[in-house]
Amino acid sequence: MQTLTSGDTTLTRRVLVVDDEDDIREVAQLSLEIMAGWEVWGAPSGKEGIRIAETTRPDVILLDVMMPDMDGPTTFRQLQANPKTQDIPVILLTAKVRARLVKEQFLPMGVCGVITKPFDATKLADQVAETVGWDLSSEGIQP
Amino acid sequence: MVSTEVDVAEVYEAARLAALHRYGILDTAAEPVWDNLCQLAAQVCEAPIALIGFIDQSRHWFKATYGWKVEALPREQSWCAQAICRPEPLLLTDLDQDPRYQEHPLVARDPHIRAYASQPLIDEEGFVLGTLSVMDWRSRQFSLSQLRGLQTVAEQVMAQLQLRRFWQVEEPTVYPPTVPGSPSVNGNQEVSQGRKAWDPTYPQVHPDVRRAHEHLYRRIVDTAQEGIWVLDEQGKTCFVNRRLGQLLGYTAPEMLGRSLMEFVEPDQQQMVERLLASSNQFSPEQLEICWRRKDGSRLWSLVSTSPMLEAEQEGGFLGTLCMVIDISLRKEAEAQLRQVNEELERRVEARTAEWIQANRALAESEERFRSIFTEAPIGIALIQQQGHILTANRALAEMLGYVNASELVGVHLGSLAQAGPELTPEERQEEQEQQERLAQGEIQSYRQVRRLLRRDGRWVWTQLTFGRISTSDSQAKEEGYGLVMVEDITERQVLESMKDEFISIVSHELRTPLTSIHGALSLMATGKLGSLLPKGERLLQIAVTNTERLVRLVNDILDLDRIEAGSLSMEKKPCDAGELICHAAETMRSMAEQAQVHLVTQPLSVMVQADPDRIIQTLTNLLSNAIKFSPAGATVEVGVKQRHAHQVIFWVRDQGRGIPAANLETIFHRFKQVDSSDSRKKGGTGLGLAICRSIVRQHGGRIWAESEVGKGSTFFFTLPLSAPE
Fold it and tell me: Nearest Cα to B61, choosing from B72, B51, B70, B45?
């Protein structure tokens, strides 16, 4: 596991992936760990996601739009409403065909960005970094 | 010329002689009338000799003489011979002084003629038949009145001659067949009795009157057009006239004494018996009888009989008079007529039979075809050019919820129809073209899939096949009606949509595990988890490649599904066609370079109304295909130009292997690649062109391909121009 430096402090980017599909979530987790060396948590539901976010305060949250019980947008609104989590950037994960609609609807509401599914496991970290605005090359994470 | 004159004279002389012979005067016995006229001429002229003579070919023959007994003179001795050539009176005096006649026998010898006067005997036709001459053995003159007297007597001579011809007797054709000669001396009582009624010699009258009557009757009998046949009371022939002889081909003597029965056809004998029997009963009869002629031929005649009765003894039966009229012509005509009639009847009968036969065959054939039409399990209708139904069958009526097929007559088929997805103007035009091509006979049929409105308001999915009717019926040609076959494909359509739905669900369900597999494999393939043995690497690569392909396939299926379902709406907005092309070309640049294909763009800056992402997708799809099927070093060209006022046309041209004409349409169907191995070799999903077509259709455009095998293909699609602001 590689570490990242932020300023003088060596930091590891910490990411929370919220998706009800276990395999997809796990692939995403592994993808980010393997490709970028980030620290990644996974949550199978919006509720669990909020709980982990509160406690771990990740650098970014990847949030699937389509979920049973509590869907992505609801989870996002709750994160926004929570003082502990309201500053954490959120990237929505959505099916390609709905990407435009989702963008139009949620970017104005403060969503950091939208990544379409299915994602390319080898490029997901790049996409996240680009969306959030991290310079991965300067961070020296690229091998 | 001389010969001609001679000929004329000969002809004239022949005619004159014929005329003379017709009078039958030559060599007849002396008659008192003639003798008297001769004497009168002598007395008028106070001459001792008078002669009435006729000149035939060799002599001057005298009918009557006075004062000099002479029968005839050689023609060359006769002064009268001159009269033949010169039909005028001749007067010769002082003959002993005249050198021309000094040696003339009549002058030099007895009767020593010294003076001569003659008057020609000229008949009605102008022929000089002879002369009336007076002679004297003294030298003398004739006074004018004497010569006029001579002329008058000559006229009387001619009158006598004409009279004679009128009563002329010809050779007898008859007469007591058994007894020539006088009947009074004949012992045969019956015959003599039988002759009494018709024998002109009975009863005895003055010989002159008798002769006159006899001649008159003879002429009537001989010139009659009817055959006259007189039978005795036993039916034996006593008399036949000339005409009857002619009719039966016998001479009179051959027939005389023979029974009537001998001359009839065997099958006619009964008729003849009837004739004779009725005559015996004194009643006239008229029958058609067929005779057998001497030469064996048959003669049809109408025979009228009348019994001959004794004139003075009431009731005495003498025999039968038969009048025979030739009716063979009539019979023949009748027979011909009968034959013609029979022939006509036969023909009419034959034609009638033929007609009945043909009619029955026609009816059967019509019945057969009608039943094909009515009973066919597929809907069939005849439609007019405008689309109104002329006739429909039961299957169509049932399909559309009508009780009776006749209810559909006059219904406009088009008004019942609705295309599934809205037809684009291009498709409408294409349909129109197909209709016209069908009408022109360029194609035999074309198909449409349409929803038809049932009577109960529900819809039925149908496939319509329009066909042309080739007919000799000019009205049909003029009105141009056609055939349409209607197939209920609702079930098929339901199956189709079930299949689509199934594919859609399967694809959707496949997507999540596939994404996971793909993600996992691709992460492993990065090598960041440690390296594998080369064979393990290879296996991993195979797994990645095929997973990628599966992902593409699933994505394409879902994509197509959504576009066709309309759930993926096109975000149409004005955009620059040239930019779309450049964008698509840029996307494909690296693929082209990899394949060593030159990518050429011909962009035109023109605004179209389109969803840019989707049009780029279409163009990249087409470019991807073009590059895939191009050999290294070939050129792929992509361009756009304005087609007409409302439309632009895009094209992607390659120099690949081309597409067979038969496949030009089907390549746009799902999973219809020209070569099914292509999906493996070229990595396509078989859905790219189907997606392109869906996208283009959603834009109201049309997509098609043109190709020449071995030279390359060009794909075209049209888009509407952006409406000007």
Answer: B72
Of A69, A120, A35, nearest to B528 by C-alpha is: A35
Does the pLDDT value for residue B7 go beyond 70? no
With 90 as the cut, is the pLDDT of residue B171 above it?
no
pLDDT at B687 over 70: yes
pLDDT digits (tens, 9 = 90+) for B236-262: 888 888 888 888 888 888 888 888 888
Look at A2 and B82; give whichever has higher pLDDT: B82
Q: Is A90 helix (H, G, I), strand (E, B) or coil?
A: strand
Output the DSSP codes for B36-103: HHHHHHHHHTT-SEEEEEEE-SSEEEEEEEESS--SEEEGGG-THHHHHHS-S-EEE--TTT-TTTTT
Q: Which two tokens stand for residue B202?
A: 């009975």
Task: Tell me yes or no: is domain B195-326 CATH 3.30.450.20.
Answer: yes
* Listed range (A36-40, A62-66, A129-133, B419-423) with the worst mean pLDDT: B419-423
A chain contacts of residue B515, beta-carbon cutoff 8 Å: 24, 27, 117-119
Task: Quote the CATH superfamily of domain B2-166.
Answer: GAF domain (3.30.450.40)
Q: How far is it, in rounded angstroms, from Cα B56 to Cα B26?
A: 8
Quote the CA–CA distance of B337 and B385 in Å, as a whole number: 56
Residue B655: exposure state from Cβ atoms within 10 A (0-12, 13-18, ≥19): buried
Least CB-CB distance to A34: which of B514, B523, B568? B523
What pLDDT score does A9 carry?
44
According to CATH, the topology of domain B570-720 is: Heat Shock Protein 90 (3.30.565)
Contact: A24, B568; criterion CB under 8 Å: no
Report the C-alpha gap between B13 and B129 in whole angstroms: 10
What does the pLDDT read at residue A52? Answer: 94
* Best CA proximity match to B323, nearest among B195, B231, B229: B229
Cβ proximity of B319 and B194 under 8 Å: yes
Q: What is the pLDDT of residues B83-129, one digit of tens each?
A: 677 778 888 888 888 888 878 888 888 888 889 999 999 888 788 88
Q: How far apart are the C-alpha atoms of A130 and A120, rounded to whole Å?
A: 14
* Residue A142 with chain B: CB contacts under 8 Å: none
List of domains in chain A: 11-131 (3.40.50.2300)
Q: Above pLDDT 70, what percent of chain A?
A: 86
pTM value is 0.45
- Is there a contact between B520 and A121 if contact means CB atoms under 8 Å apart? yes
Q: Which helix (H) or strand (E) holds A7?
A: none
For every residue of B485-502, DSSP letters joined together read: EEEE-HHHHHHHHHHHHH
Residue B291 tokens, joined:
């005779």
What is the rounded CA–CA span in Å between residue B717 and residue B722?
A: 16
> Which residues from A are below 8 Å from B526, CB to CB?
34-35, 122
Q: Is the ipTM of this complex over 0.85?
A: no
Asked if the model's pLDDT at residue B288 lies above 50, the reply is: yes
DSSP B372-412: HHHH-SSEEEEE-TTSBEEEE-HHHHHHTT-S-GGGGTT-B
- Mean pLDDT over A51-57 rounds to 93
Q: Quick check: B224 pLDDT over 70?
A: yes
Whether B515 sits inside 8 A of A28 (CB atoms) is: no
| CB atoms inside a 10 Å sphere around CB B429 | 12
Right CATH for B376-488 from 3.20.20.370, 3.30.450.20, 3.90.1150.10, 3.40.50.720 = 3.30.450.20
| CA–centroid distance for B95 within its chain | 90
B222-235 in b/e burial notation, b at 16+ Cβ within 10 A? eeeebbbbbbbbeb
- Which range, of B345-354, B549-558, B560-569, B715-724, averages the lowest pLDDT? B560-569
Helix (H, G, I), strand (E, B) or coil at B636: strand
Interface mutation vs chain A, best among B511, B516, B563, most A CBs within 10 Å: B516
